Request: fold
Amino acid sequence: MKNLAISFLLFYAYGCLFAQTPTSTLPCSTPEYQQFNFWIGEWDVYQKGKLVGTNEVKQILGECVIMENWVGIGPSRGKSFNLYNIQSGEWEQTWVDNVGGIIRFHGSYADGIMSMVADGKTQDGSHIAYKLTFWDNENRTVRQLWEAKKDEGEKWFTLFDGLYKKKSHSKPKN
Reply:
């Protein structure tokens, strides 16, 4: 009986030791996962001073993924899923849209700039390269420049140059 009591006490003490161990931090809480947080928010998006759409960008899946929900003024709709890939040490974005498009970008963050590239195919099957750059501006806006080129020696041409401004949620005055 004495051995049984000692065994029980040891088992209980062992359980208490681990019960008091602090829980680990979230898996995506390291600084690398926070690099693209400047893009999170509800945005009005302008091109050449004209409103062209809205974008809701938020963290999902335990703050491991940044999801974009683009709604253009016209029929344009799209979503992207962005995450830091700890294995490759790169950021990855998968963009999908309402015309069946999919583009897989990869890149890195440095000095307030997120830069990504991707290879793809045009509708006729020829090669196209994409470059996507986001600037974290000091005035709390974000600039997004999306460029492309079809041939290696060619210059980049602009597909989209947008300025993100935080949506105002103020109530109208009576």
Notes: The beta strands are 41-47, 50-60, 65-72, 77-85, 90-97, 102-110, 113-121, 127-136, 142-149, 157-166.
